[in-house]
């Protein structure tokens, strides 16, 4: 079942803020929260992530009906990519090197910002490339 395309973009906007504050403050706890949000989105899909829940319960009822839908698999894959970068960030900030934490968090922030501001989902595009490559390889 397709999902409202505004939901993942809302989640990306919240993620952008969380990761920007994480980089500014150096808060490992805030990055841990975002890692959990990515993990829930990767495991259950973006509608099951905390930001998807907020969108569904608080934001979507205040908007008009959706006009654009998308398949749930690409955003779910994007959550898994975000999870990988967040885990690398946690490792860098807790075990070192510090630059790894900053770089991985910055990469996740850049991807989230592109989705939030321009509707361009890097993880979704990666999903499509992986699908094309794996289908051709069979």
For the report, how would you describe the main beta sheet? Answer: 2 strands, antiparallel
Distance between the termini: 26 Å
Assembly state: single chain
The number of helical segments is 6
Low-pLDDT segments? none
Question: Which word captures the global form?
Answer: globular
Structural class: mainly alpha
Overview features:
138 residues; mainly alpha; two-stranded antiparallel ribbon
What can you see in these coordinates?
With 138 residues, the chain is an all-alpha fold. Helix content is 78%, strand content 3%. The protein is built from 6 helices and 2 strands. The protein has helices at 6-25, 28-44, 50-59, 73-95, 98-118, 122-137, and strands at residues 3-4, 69-70. The chain has a two-stranded antiparallel sheet with strand order 1-2. The protein is globular and about 45 Å long. It starts with a strand and ends with a helix.
Topology:
Blueprint (H helix, E strand, L loop, with lengths): L2 E2 L1 H20 L2 H17 L5 H10 L9 E2 L2 H23 L2 H21 L3 H16 L1
Antiparallel strand pairs: 1-2
Helix pairs in contact: 1-2, 1-3, 1-5, 2-4, 4-5, 4-6
What's the short story on this structure?
By secondary structure, the protein is mainly alpha-helical.
């Amino acid at each position: 079942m397709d999902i409202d395309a505004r939901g993942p973009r809302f989640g990306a906007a919240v993620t952008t803020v969380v990761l920007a504050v994480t980089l500014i403050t150096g808060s490992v706890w805030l990055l841990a929260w975002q890692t959990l949000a990515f993990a829930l989105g990767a495991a259950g899909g973006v509608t099951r992530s905390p930001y998807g829940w907020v969108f569904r319960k608080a934001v979507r009822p205040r908007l008009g009906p959706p006009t654009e839908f998308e398949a749930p698999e690409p955003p779910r894959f994007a959550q898994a990519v975000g999870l990988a970068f967040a885990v690398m960030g946690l490792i860098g900030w807790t075990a070192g090197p510090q630059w790894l934490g900053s770089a991985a968090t910055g990469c996740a922030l850049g991807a989230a910002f592109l989705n939030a501001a321009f509707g361009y989902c890097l993880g979704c595009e990666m999903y499509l490339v992986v699908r094309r490559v794996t289908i051709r390889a069979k």
